[in-house]
Fold this sequence. Notes:
Elements: E1 5-10, H1 13-24, E2 36-39, E3 49-52, H2 54-58, H3 67-73, E4 78-81, H4 84-101, E5 105-109, E6 112-116, H5 121-124, H6 127-142, E7 146-151, H7 154-161, E8 169-172, H8 177-181, H9 194-202, H10 208-212, H11 216-234, E9 252-262, H12 265-285, E10 288-299, E11 304-315, H13 318-332, E12 338-350, H14 351-357, H15 368-380, E13 390-393
Parallel strand pairs: 2-4, 7-8, 9-13
Antiparallel strand pairs: 1-6, 1-7, 2-3, 5-6, 9-12, 10-11, 10-12
The chain binds magnesium ion.
Magnesium ion (MG) is lined by residues 9-10, 13, 111-112.
Amino acid sequence: MDRIIMHIDVNSAFLSWSSLKLLSEGSNIDLRNEIAVVSGKEESRHGIVVASSIPAKKIGIKSPMNLRDARRIYKDLIVTHADKEYYKKCSNNMMKLIKYLFPKYEQYSIDECFVDYTEMKKLYGDEVKFAHKLKDEIYKRFGFTVNVGIGNNKLLAKMASDFEKPNKVHTLYKSEIKEKMWPLKVGDLFMAGKAASMKLNELGINTIGDLANYDQNKLIKVLKNQGKMLYEYANGIDDSPVINRYDDRKGIGFSKTLEEDTIEKNVIYNNLRNFSNRISLELKKRNLYASTLVVTIRYSSFKTYNHQIKFENNTNLEEEIFNLSKIAFNKLWNFEPIRLIGLRVTDISSNNDIQLSLFDENNKVLKDKEIDKLIDSINKEFGTGTVFKGFKNIDSN
Ligand SMILES: [Mg+2]
């Protein structure tokens, strides 16, 4: 039986919530109807747009744009500052309601969650009707609007909630993939970041449909593990369950027993690169960040050693994982022949802390480049939450 999954996503969450706060304080302007943005602290030179209203988006003002550029587009731009305590309250209110209604529930970020409706259908009836009731109930109780996407897995539900906004319910069942998802630009596909989209465009792949019908082996050659994954997503394939990953404290990692014992650094680095790539994808899919990395070496003597290092900032970026893994490896290795190499990240957390740390002026994360990367990952990449692998051995692959 096909599953029924819903993705519930607050429309312009930070902007809506700031607007509600101002209204509750007696303001008579609803920012949601104005050309308005939420920004970090403006006095630091990092005044950047972290959320924009739908009217602002329509004229091209979006995150992560700096305020100067945003004002160049519209000089009377209304700017308000983030209030993370208030945001948390709004988020908790909604999540509490969802948790109450659905036993299978997964918070994805501060303003998004998945629920598994499959079993609930007996109790609540038709999913589309219920989704309308749910979004209206959220609006009535809390004063902000959401989009609800319905599909047969998390990927499809997430793609569906991203269709026309605000305050809408959309379906994207497997049977609707061709009609509703394939005509979209390939960059609109979950996990297709800017870099990947550019590579795909170079291959002549412009729409999600082009990607779905491309030769998967060629994609794997160009984009490695990400190519395999994007091909599956373009075909609407995603078996990941709805799980509350906030309960999961395990790490994500891979190890490999080498074909023959080696003292070749390149062989080890190639493996660490591959592990870093896979770990990064797993983290990004679930919108998670790791703070610690562990490298494991087993020598031909079967003695096994670990070395653990903390990242400067929580990360899910392949390059940062790979670079630190090399450092850990070189600290650990005693130049004896290596039989097995492993890499794992632990102390994993959701993006909420990071998303909110954008507003913390003293946080090291506040570097332009890093902010771009972070906001990019927050906005463009969302999790489909496959089961945690723990320290999975990939010898069999
Ligand atoms: Mg949202």
